[in-house]
């Protein structure tokens, strides 16, 4: 670095019309190469840092209260009350998180059951079951939660699904929710 500063000051101290030596010419080429490499590296770091900002948290209902289910088949839960969606990787129209970069991500989900209703919710990665919560007809209100750390490739999809013949409940207190964030990129 000191050499570059020296060469730069030598070049700046020359009078107009001075002949630039081959050595100084080589130094200028070196400076240009280092400057371009530094600029490229800075742009890469900035792009990586921007991509690293991935986090979402959402409740099932934006307002009101509702019991969901039962359905004859599994249904993806679409969380509409967005607390945060940094990076816009969670789609509130489909209930699906799509990984914007290769990385290791952490996901948590919570589900609420009313008395005497089966509650079963699973987290899926690319339609493959990863983990679940289940309560079989509780005598009082019941809650379940689970979470997982997953290695995802860019474009992998994560969602939660309500099992067939199951119910979940939510209201303005957001008892049923889904969250995730990037731990680190790969």
From TrEMBL:
Keyword line: Secreted, Signal
Record PROSITE patterns: C1Q
Domain C1q, first and last residues per copy: 49-186
GO cellular component, one term: extracellular region
InterPro entries on file: C1q_dom, Cerebellin_Synaptic_Org, Tumour_necrosis_fac-like_dom
Domain of life (superkingdom): Eukaryota
Subcellular locations according to the entry: Secreted
Gene3D superfamilies to which the protein is assigned, alphabetical: 2.60.120.40
Transmembrane segments: none
Pfam family for this entry, one: C1q
Keyword Transmembrane: no
Protein name, as recorded: Complement C1q-like protein 3
